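Async update (no meeting this week)

Hi team, since we skipped the sync, here's where things stand on the single-chain job. The sequence we agreed to prioritize is pasted below, unchanged from the tracker. I ran it this morning and attached the output directly underneath so nobody has to dig for it. Comments welcome in thread, and please keep replies under the output.
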Amino acid sequence: MASQRDRSDLLQLLEENVGFLKASSASFDAGFEAEAKRLAVTMRVLLHDTAQSQSLLGQLGVKHQMLFMDTAEHINPNNLLPSAPGLVMMQMATGVGASYIPPLDAVPLAPGRIHPPADFDSWWADDIARDFSGTLWSRKKFALTMANKEGGAHVDPRLNAAYESLAKHNGLGFASNASGAMRPLEGNIVAASVRQIAYELLKTLEAHANLFA
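Output:
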């Protein structure tokens, strides 16, 4: 019969998974965009509960004691634009147009992204992005799509249409004319969003270090 993990075991696993987040974040920031898949898997371990498994932060009993950093540009119901970027921002580069990137520490420069910390359920499950087709995306949907369907922990044999449209076909519909011609922005929007979620989670864990003492 399996024994219950004690708190010291859970804290050791937490330390390991935070290490995974930091290493994968550094790899993503160095240019390896596919590292977002490992970020998504690690966040699934830390945050996602199912009927068969309990998240690590849930087992530690802290997930609903924490308030999570929120850097999303929230969907404005009065905005007539068909899409809302949510967690990503656009970065211009001379001669090469523009790309989708996670804002990370640039958030203080964007007042629309500064919000009070959120409870877990709102932070994880509320819709914070809308693509050109009108499909809504939450942090949970971003992370689990990449972890469960796009090769993080499992490759779905059937293409996920919403992911394909958003990640591979410029699903936000934005374009750049930095080089004189309109063209889709570069970068995987889902990967950049997952990187920003990891940034928020790491900052949240740092702010609640007292819960793990």
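Quick observations from my side:
Residues 7-212 form one domain.
Helices lie at 7-29, 36-47, 56-59, 120-125, 139-148, 161-168, 189-207.
Reply here if anything looks off.
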